[in-house]
Amino acid sequence: MLEQQASQMAEQRVHYDNMMMQMLTIQMAEQRRHFKEQQASQMAEQRIHYDNMMMQMLS
């Protein structure tokens, strides 16, 4: 009986660990995507700033 319980608990533990890993993987992917979007918008802003400076120097 105890052995059966122990193996059931072990299986549940493995299942739980797998679920947690999946959730973490999804979260990390989301964060990476968000970070990339942030980087892209920052680069766009810097580009605009740079273009403005160049225009001022030329005018």
Distance between the termini: 87 Å
Shape: rod-shaped
Number of helices: 1
Biggest sheet overview:
none
Overall pLDDT, averaged? Answer: 93
Indicate the radius of gyration in whole angstroms: 25 Å
**Order of helices and strands, N to C?**
H
Strand content: under 5%
Structural category is: mainly alpha
| Low-pLDDT residue intervals, each spanning 5 or more residues | none
Task: Explain what the structure shows.
The structure is a single chain. This protein is mostly helical and 59 residues long. 97% of the residues lie in helices and 0% in strands. The longest helix is centred in the middle third of the chain and has 57 residues, at 2-58. It has one helix at residues 2-58. The model has no long low-confidence stretch (mean pLDDT 93).
What features would you highlight for this structure?
59 residues; mainly alpha; 1 helix
Task: Detail the topology: elements first, then pairings.
Elements: H1 2-58
Describe the structure concisely for a colleague:
With 59 residues, the protein is an all-alpha fold.
